[in-house]
Amino acid sequence: MTFKQSDALARVQPSATLAVTQKARDLKARGVDVISLGAGEPDFDTPDHVKQAAIEAIKAGKTKYTAVDGIPELKAAIVAKFERENGLNYSAAQVSVAPGGKPIIYNALVATLNPGDEVLFPAPYWVSYPEMVRLCGGEPKVIRAGIETGFKITPAQLEAAITPRTKWFIFNSPSNPTGAGYTSEEIRGLTDVLLRHPQVMIMTDDMYEHIVYDGYEFATVAQVEPRLYDRTLTTNGVSKAFAMTGWRIGYAAGPEGLIAAMRKVISQTTSNACSISQWAAVAALEGPMDFIKDRNTAFKRRRDLVLADINAADGLTAPTPEGAFYIFAECSGWIGKTTPDAVKLETDIDVCNALLGEQAVAAVPGTAFGGSPCFRISYATDDASLKEAGMRIKRFAENLS
């Protein structure tokens, strides 16, 4: 019998970031000195007090099924976090916990989308947004932001993109893949537009809330415009700020009816997130956060190191990110050129393949993020590797003809 995938899955592309990371792993396994700048994962360890909380949870036998969308203690910690850090007041009934940020977003989409519903988001975008929308039967619709605006959309662009079929607007700041962070004033311009379109729900992806630089102050939509509170799902997680990617805990707060619908999805799909991870997340949200400042100092140093090398390489340019740990390099100056191995660079996919093949530097093509011709570099790795990668990228540029 020949396997035939579903029509829904046929509309979806696999994750480009995971593909690049796996390709780099395979080359390393064959002895190639690859510098992998593809994965969006902090190289720091999970804080000790968080790990200890998980150990104590195991010792206490907290290893059974939990409520499908989160233990009461974690929901209480999330409620307190939103009030303390964002000035947002929620009840436990308005909170959902899932095994990662991806399931949170997917659960909200599958609980609300009907065929033909449109979901708007700025491009460049996180690779999973359009694919999850397609899996849920919706239609992704992008609003393109270029390097000339620092990869940020304008209120006029948002206004022009909204139609009667628009169900959601997904907003990610600071952004993966660009690191662009919107100010409160810039968010206000977008919320003024959204107030005029009551059929549009808003989903904020705040995963990089705490990874910010140069005095940038994070703000989220419902905080900036309280009149949008009742139609905003504010999503977050512990993966990035607390270096807990493998623990798989994402969370969100929003309208109680939406949270109940998401609970129904969870009850028939993943069920609860790992019980041990939930107790670790309680410790993360309730514990000390002074370590974040030191880690951001390291991230900023790495950002500046990579940015200097990118902007010094002939044919590349990149704006300074306000947050996250990515550089989104515009590489139009390389398109049309040829490598020493006689590879003509016609797309950013060609660029990344050649960069990996000829200089053993793994980056993700901007095409995967709806931003071409560009490529994304993650600087969530050690300084020595970043310095070597910068030298290789500049050497790659010098060898083009």
Which SSEs are present, and which pair or pack?
Layout: H1 7-10, H2 16-29, E1 35-36, H3 48-59, H4 72-86, E2 95-98, H5 101-112, E3 118-123, H6 128-135, E4 139-144, H7 155-161, E5 166-172, H8 184-195, E6 201-205, H9 221-224, E7 232-237, E8 250-253, H10 256-267, H11 275-286, H12 291-312, E9 326-330, H13 348-359, E10 361-362, E11 364-365, E12 374-378, H14 383-398
Helix pairs in contact: 3-11, 4-11, 5-6, 5-10, 7-8, 12-14
Could you provide a short overview of the structure?
By secondary structure, this protein is an alpha/beta fold. It is 40% helix and 13% strand.
Characterization of this structure:
With 401 residues, this protein is α/β, with parallel strands linked by helices. It folds into 2 domains: 7-45 and 291-398, Alpha-Beta Complex (Aspartate Aminotransferase, domain 1); 63-286, Aspartate Aminotransferase, domain 2 (3-Layer(aba) Sandwich), CATH 3.40.640. It has helices at residues 7-10, 16-29, 48-59, 72-86, 101-112, 128-135, 155-161, 184-195, 221-224, 256-267, 275-286, 291-312, 348-359, 383-398, and strands at residues 35-36, 95-98, 118-123, 139-144, 166-172, 201-205, 232-237, 250-253, 326-330, 361-362, 364-365, 374-378. The protein has a 7-stranded mixed sheet with strand order 2-8-7-6-5-3-4, sandwiched between helices. A 3-stranded antiparallel sheet has the order 9-12-11. The termini are far apart. The mean pLDDT is 96.
